[in-house]
Each structure stands twice: as structure tokens, then as C-alpha cells.
Amino acid sequence: MTVAKRRMRKVFGIRNGKGRDGEREREIAKRERNRGGAAAVAASTQRRSSGGLEVVPAKVLYVHLVAQVERHSGGGRFVPIIAAAAAPRFTGGSTASNSIAAKFEISKYDGKIDFGLWQKRIKAVLVQQGLHKALLGKEKSGVKKDEEWEELDLKVISTIQMSLTDEIMYNVVDADTTVDLWKKLEELYMSKSLTNKLYVKRQLYSLRMSESNKLLEHMNAFNKLISQLRSMDVKVEEEDQALLLLSSLPKSYDHLVTTILYGKDTLKMKEVMTTLLSNETRSKPGPSTSEEWFTSFRQCDGGRVLMGNDSECKTLGIGSIRIKMFDGTIRTLTDVRYVPDLRKSLISLGTLEAAGCSYTSEGRYLKVKKGALVFMKGERSGTLYKLIGTTIAGDAAVSEMTDEDSSLLWHARLGHMSERRLLELHKKGLLKGVKTCKLDFCETCVLGKQHRVKFVTSTQRSKQALEYIHSDVWGPAPEPSLGGVRYFVTFIDDFSRKVWIYFLKHKSEVFEKFKVCKTTVEKQTGKRVKYLRSDNGGEYTSAEFQEYCNQKGITRHLTIPGTPQQNGVAKRMNRTLLERARCMRLFADLPRSF
Fold first, then answer.
1. Positive or negative, the Cα torsion across 512, 513, 516, 517?
2. What is the structure's pLDDT at 550?
3. pLDDT, tens digit, 9 for 90 and up, residues 277-311
4. Residue 54 — φ and ψ, nearest 5°?
5. How far apart are CA 576 and CA 573, in angstroms?
6. Which of 60, 161, 308, 551 is a plausible cystine mate for 64, CB 3.0–4.6 Å?
């Protein structure tokens, strides 16, 4: 008999099953099975305590060993019975019928499902059963008695083994303790090697949601990868998770992503997920029925629609539908046919054209205009253009039209005034037709009022003279000097902030002035120029200038086009020089030519 079998028989009091006692045990077990196992499920060990009778059911996950107590003149005898449900431990009551049965359904691990998720569920079940200390090992569990530890360890290892398929059991069959079994499973199916980390990270960074996918399915796939990395001890910051999730969304979510990011310095994953799911629920249309989509509906035989395969779809009615467009305004579509057999809701461009509208296609987008006003947009999806907007169902369209649409109209009339100012006008009764002043997200305001974020001032300084030189050209002056000069160039030492200024008649003279300045300052200080920062002007990026710097070992640092802030030292110095020169000229009452 193996060690495991002996421990099992010792823990649960199983005898050899021979002789009169063994026959008696088998007879009782047979009788209980014939009665449908009802007594076996509710059976428990009863003992007296100060508070009354304490019911202590056994705790096992799938197959539960419950002791049926039979009291007779010879004393109590424990007969192991197999029950089909678990009963959590509780105190109270006077009979075993008061026990509460609870069943935990967990899929067996087969090597295909996510091991980290399965592992968390097993831990949760062990916590519910009060057996989780066995995962810590004997020393950390706090269980001092060997018999108690053996019983606890045996229950947990049997629970885990019964949650594994045969194929997985073959790989861990030699594990005799819970800790050994747990470690072996982690080594086999939750490898924390760099290769696995790289593989999961690649999946996370390359994850993309297609237009046809559902948002909830995509978010589940994203969270699964995050969970796998977490189980490998790889921490992805919350803000990085939120940004990765937003970057994985398709083009159709660009409008919503802009809304989420607008005016925020930090992001929280919970906030992003809530906003996405809320938008998905709000924008997802229900079934196309006359009761839900149509604000007005008349049932009639509206004829038949001929399909491309010569099949026909019957029209059951005609009505009106309100749609919230891309800019927040609400438009009404009239004479809408209700055709249940159509898979997609279609808007006829020919009908819109007959109503005096025009449409143009630019790239992936279709714009429908009436006069100069663009009131409808669509984004290409396959061979069709998907309307950018949402359908407002039933009575909700009326309230939307009277509140939000009127507020948005006044917002546009008043030059896209802020919501706070609109509220002030509304309180004074100056906005006619507006009951509750409420503004939705305005894309035009975002596009028209956005500004560049302030650049962070650099705190790094050079450690010696001439190590880093800043340079910039000012000009042309509105009026040339007496000597015909219209430009000047400055060279500023980053370490000492000393300035060298040279006047120019043409910007092309910058290269010659730089060579003169470099030769002069290097001989005066005994040091060499190492770095030169300037903008991308042609006077700095000529081939001869670049070749000269390469020969002299000078590294060029060019600013990004359109960002003069990156050359702020030279720009501010030029401003300071001009202000001082202007003040001196005005104080001396001299003309502009000076």
C-alpha cells in the first residue's frame, strides 16, 4: 500500500473492510446510496458544545467525504460516504438538516486555458474552504501538529489533483505534497522566462481591434494579456495600460479617444474602461422596431424592396427617425421604410440629393452638405460608408431636441461660448427656447481652441566653457541701418552665458561669422567648441557648414521644425538685445535707421 493511500485511510478512519465491521460498513453505504444520496449530502459530524450542537460538514471541492454517524449501543462509527455537493462550515441548529450545500464549478486545467486565471480560482475555492494555508508550507501555515498538517495537506492536494485532466496529472503524478505540486505546475505552465515575457509583451503591443470586433471581447483579450504579464511578475503601470488600450482601438473610436484625453494630464484604467463601455452601451442600437427607433410610425404595406439576388423584402411601415450627428446636432429623417429583413439600416444618397443635398468623398470620409453646411458624415467601412452618429430611440429624441440641441445652437451662434458663460445668460433669461442649459462635447471647440502645451524648461547646464554653443539669426529688420545691415547672428556660451554678436547684410554670411567666432574664442580660452545648437534654417544646414562641423568634430543639435522653444536660450537673448537697443534709441530720440 502506498504512503498516500495509508495517509488517506488514516485521516478519514477507513478500515480494511474485512470481517463483521467491514461488512457492516459496506451495508450502510449501500443503503445510503439506494436512498438517492440525500442523507449523504446532508450528513455531518455532530458534537456537543457550550452554545448548542455544532455542525461541521466536510470540505472538499468535487468529491466530498462526509461522515455518517450511526449511534447504537456499541458507540458511534464513522462510515465514509461519497457526496455530490460541498457544505461550508457553520455553527448552529440541532440537526444535520440545517447544513447548507454549496457547489463550486471550476473547469479542469488541460493546458489550454489560462493557467494564471485557473490558479486564482483554485486559490479562491481553497480560501472559501479554509484550506489555503497548505499552499504556504508547513512552517508558514501555523499548523503545529503533524496529524493536522497531514490532514490539511492531503485535502488540498486531492482538491488540486481532481481539478486537473489526465494529461496534466501524468506530468505531476510524482508530487507528494501541496507545495511540490503547486511549484511543479507553476514551473511547467507559468514560466517566467524572458522568452515568454517577450512573447506576451509582443502580443499586448500588437493587439488591435478591427471594426467588426466587439468592444467587450477586445477588452477581455486585453485584460487576459495584462493578467498573464502580472502572473509573470511583470508590472504594467496603470496609465500605460490605459494608453495601450486606447491605441489598440480602430479609427472609428478616434473621436471618443480625443474626448477621453482632452484636458487630462493622467489617465486611470478604470475610468477609461468605464467610458468605453458606457459609450458602447449608449451608441449600440437595439433591434430595429417601430416601437424603439421611430418617433412616429405608421404601419402600412409600403411595397417591396428588390435585392441584388432578385429576392424581395417586404416593407411593413413608414415613419420618422431622429439621429444625433457627429457634431451633436439632432436631425430628423422622414419617410423611413421599415424593412425587417434588411441586415443593415441604409440611407439613400439619391433621396438626399433629390431633397437638395450634395455629397463629396474625401479619403475615407463622405460629407453630406446642404448649401455650405456639412450636416452628415460617414466613414468608409468595406464598400459602404458608416454614419458617424447615433440613433435616438422614441421619446428620448424629443427631450434631446429641446434641451441639448437648443443649447448647442446658441453655443454656435455666440461664437462657441463656454458652458459657464451660457449658464450666466440662461439665468438672466437671455437664451430663448432653452429650458436647461446643457452642452455636450463640441468637436469644433477642441479643434479651434486647442493650444500647444508649455515646454518644460531644461535644467541641464554645461560643465565648462565652449562645451555647448547656442546660435540664432534675427532679421530682416524693417529698415536697414546706416551701413546697410538688416540681420545679426548671436553665439551664446551655455556655461557662462557670454554672447558674441555679428551684424550681417545677408543671412548667407552666418557660416563665415561662425568660423571667425570659433577661431577667436578657442584661442582666447584654450578650449574647443563641442556642440552647436541652432534651428533648421538654410543658413545653418548648408552642405559646407555641415562638412566644416564634421571636420572640426562639432556635433550639431538642430531643433524640430516649428518649435522655436527648443532654441529658447538664443531666442530670449535676441529679444533682450533688441529691447535694450530699442530703449537706447528711444531715449536718445534717434530715428529707426540707427
1. negative
2. 94
3. 877 765 544 444 444 667 777 777 767 777 766 67
4. -105, 125
5. 5
6. 60
Write down the pLDDT at residue 168. 81
Instruction: For residue 374, give the 3-state DSSP assignment.
Output: strand
Contact status, residue 141 vs residue 149, Cβ threshold 8 Å: yes
Residue 591: CB atoms within 10 Å: 8
H or E element, residue 126: helix 115-129
Domain with CATH 3.30.420.10 in the chain: 468-587
Question: Cell for 418?
Answer: 463656454
Residue 33 cell numbers, joined: 446510496
65 closest CA partner among 93, 29, 31: 29
Q: What is the three-class DSSP state of 48?
A: strand
Identify whether the C-beta of residue 369 lies closer than 8 Å to the C-beta of residue 359: yes
pTM: 0.34
DSSP-assigned states of every residue in 316-346: -EEEEEEEE-TTS-EEEEEEEEE-TT-SS--
What's the Rg (C-alpha) of the chain?
A: 40
Residue 459's pLDDT is what? 64
C-alpha span between 206 and 508 (Å, rounded): 48
Query: What pLDDT score does 78 carry?
Result: 28
What value does the mean pLDDT of the chain take?
Answer: 74
Place of cell 489550454: 112
What stretch of H or E contains 499?
A: strand 499-504
Is residue 76 within 8 A of residue 48, CB to CB? The reply is: no
Distance separating the N- and C-terminal Cα atoms of the chain: 112
Q: What is the pLDDT of residues 98-125, one digit of tens each?
A: 333 345 667 787 777 777 778 778 878 8
3.90.1150.10, 3.30.420.10, 1.10.10.10, 3.90.79.10: which CATH number matches 468-587? 3.30.420.10
pLDDT band of 188, cuts 50, 70, 90: confident
Q: Enter the C-alpha cell of residue 119.
A: 490558479
How far apart CA 450 and CA 445 sit, in angstroms, is 8
Q: What is the pLDDT of residue 309?
A: 65
Parallel, antiparallel or unpaired: strands 531-534 and 468-474: parallel
Question: What DSSP character marks residue 179?
Answer: H
Distance, in Å, from the CA atom of 502 to the CA atom of 510, rounded to the nearest integer, reads 9
pLDDT over 70 percentage in the chain: 73
In angstroms, how far is CA 255 from the centroid of its own chain?
16
